[in-house]
Write a structure and sequence with these properties.
alpha+beta, Jelly Rolls, Arc Repressor Mutant, subunit A
Length: 231
């Protein structure tokens, strides 16, 4: 079960995430009265699609898989949230429920922040608001790439795009593939797990990747990018 701890008292600046370095001591103290720290173990669910959304979540550490559920078997993985990322941000603007699900890929530390308190902070601190907006802009771009993959690309192109994302600079300090099954990779690419296994072997034979157990190492990012672009 998740371990919850309400944050009280005056937090140390050194303990605060980079995102909160832009707010004043007074703003930080006010926000601290309305947030709860929760620890999740690998595999635990942070929240479920369709459930009531009382908080905005901020990932302090760990990796969190964000996905859509279509019926009992169909899953579309959307992105992996890492340290410094917000989840359920749209709930601040009137959304009552979570529109996707989130699960810890590895042990994660998460802040659950009161929506009203965070909304007030965004109104009064423009620099903080700009940084948050830029984070959500990057997330929006990634979602547009997912739509393009689903709409226009063939299976090899879909898998190539998923591999590029999962091995991107954003995860350079994380061994992401060690936390993902082949089914997870398939759900990022929106193809069957059988197709993932087939095309991974093809990419390996072509010298584009190297496979070792669950690990996938990109050897030729240029050719992988060409496959992604041409679909």
């Amino acid at each position: 079960m998740p371990n919850e701890e309400h944050i009280s008292g005056k937090p140390s600046r050194r303990e605060e995430p980079d995102c909160f370095e832009l707010i004043s001591k007074e703003e930080l103290d006010a926000l601290s009265e309305n947030r709860t720290h929760v620890s999740y173990l690998r595999g635990e669910t942070l929240f479920k699609q369709g459930a009531f959304a009382p908080h905005v979540l901020f990932v302090q550490s760990g990796l969190v898989k964000v996905y859509l559920q279509f019926g009992p078997k169909k899953v579309q993985n959307l992105w992996i949230a890492k340290s410094g990322d917000f989840l359920a941000f749209s709930s601040m603007f009137g959304e009552k429920i979570y529109h996707y699900s989130a699960m810890a890929l590895k042990d994660a530390e998460v802040l659950m922040i009161d929506k009203k308190s965070l909304r007030n902070l965004l109104k009064t601190n423009s620099e903080f608001g700009f940084r948050i907006t830029s984070k959500n802009y990057r997330s929006e771009n990634h979602l547009m790439e997912i739509v393009a993959n689903l709409s226009y690309k063939q299976m090899r192109g879909k898998l190539a795009s998923a591999l590029i994302y999962l091995s991107s600079e954003a995860f350079k300090h994380e061994n992401v593939f060690s936390y993902l099954s082949r089914q997870d990779v398939a759900n990022f690419a929106s193809i069957s797990v059988e197709s993932v296994i087939k095309f991974l072997k093809e990419f390996e034979k072509e010298g584009i990747i190297a496979l070792e157990n669950k690990q996938i190492k990109i050897l030729d990012s240029g050719r992988l990018g060409m496959i992604s672009n041409t679909g």
